[in-house]
Write a structure and sequence with these properties.
Length: 158
């Protein structure tokens, strides 16, 4: 298991390409979901210095806060509410360039300006979402979507 990240500078795609095998190394041999989600959050925060990175996990009819890196966050989110609940209900990644323009946005932090939320699947079922926030407008694009979807696909489900 790798315990230190090799932080690479370069294009966003190069940074993700360097990070993915390191995340795979962190996950290899570890079957504890919380530990894996915590390490993924930390690796993304370290590499990209995002404002907030973390997971919400489906519990009954809502998303419940899971492992994350950043300031305190909303604890529970209803299906269909905000960007996280929207990604869950729509079953697709949502890229929001300006959260103030997103209908029903939940302002857990006024510092958050843009957001990407990626559903986490176990088979055909959505079991959680990866939520990444930035203090900058229009921070996320199709490159983030492509690689973050690859990263959540690495999560082992037991």
């Amino acid at each position: 298991m790798a315990e230190d990240l090799n932080i690479l500078k370069g294009t966003k795609a190069e940074q993700y390409a360097s990070l993915i095998p390191q995340i795979q190394g962190l996950l290899t041999g570890e079957d504890n979901l919380i530990a894996n989600l915590a390490n993924i959050s930390a690796a993304l925060k370290e590499q990209f210095n995002f404002w907030w990175v973390g997971f919400y996990w489906v519990r009954n009819d809502e998303l419940v806060l899971g492992p994350f890196q950043g300031p305190v966050a909303c604890t529970r989110i209803k299906k269909g509410r905000g960007v996280c609940g929207g990604a869950w209900s729509q079953g697709k990644t949502l890229v929001v360039p300006d959260v103030e323009k997103f209908p029903g946005h939940i302002a857990c932090s006024s510092a958050s300006k843009s957001e990407i939320v990626v559903p986490v699947y176990n088979g055909s079922e959505i079991v959680g979402v990866l939520d990444v926030d930035s203090e900058q407008l229009s921070m996320f694009d199709e490159t983030d979507q492509f690689y973050l979807e690859k990263i959540v696909g690495l999560i082992p489900h037991n």
